[in-house]
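Complex record, two chains
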Amino acid sequence: KAGVTQTPRYLIKTRGQQVTLSCSPISGHRSVSWYQQTPGQGLQFLFEYFSETQRNKGNFPGRFSGRQFSNSRSEMNVSTLELGDSALYLCASSRGGGGPVDEQYFGPGTRLTVT
Amino acid sequence: DAKTTQPPSMDCAEGRAANLPCNHSTISGNEYVYWYRQIHSQGPQYIIHGLKNNETNEMASLIITEDRKSSTLILPHATLRDTAVYYCIVRPRLHYGGSQGNLIFGKGTKLSVKP
């Protein structure tokens, strides 16, 4: 079974621009979560989507948004980029329910550099 | 904030068992213990989870104390490829129709396997 894929793997943007990152979950997984990893703050949760609806949200400004499509693929968008948005953005997929636990499986991440 | 405490770093000789401790003294009865690891610049990798019984899979063993206030992840024969940051995470049981919630990562333990 193919793992979680993220595109692009690397991205360089300029302050003020916007960016869209894409995530394709493991086949059959209906939940997609996004995380940001920086050296200073570590791994932080952005949001979770399940059945095209945002089910959970972390403490990030409104410049960070996401969506999920009917095939469970997800995108996240960051508008008006700031230097501090430079980070590794990770996507994780899971079944989304059906048992007492729901392991999340991560993709390789997208490395975003804002200059 | 993370509900777990881990040593910041550990060393292990190649071929020996690596025992990574985790304290979760405030864990509640419906919370699971999860372990993930992150090899440099890659996405975190799911290792194992447990509730109260010891668990074993092809990657590792998880030993949870009877009072559930601490646990140990055991890599039985560490290799150089096991060098990574290991995260111990506490997550609530998934309820029907709900989300198990996001993963809350602490700083983890940096395990260095040496030849």
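Note: The radius of gyration of chain A is 14 Å.
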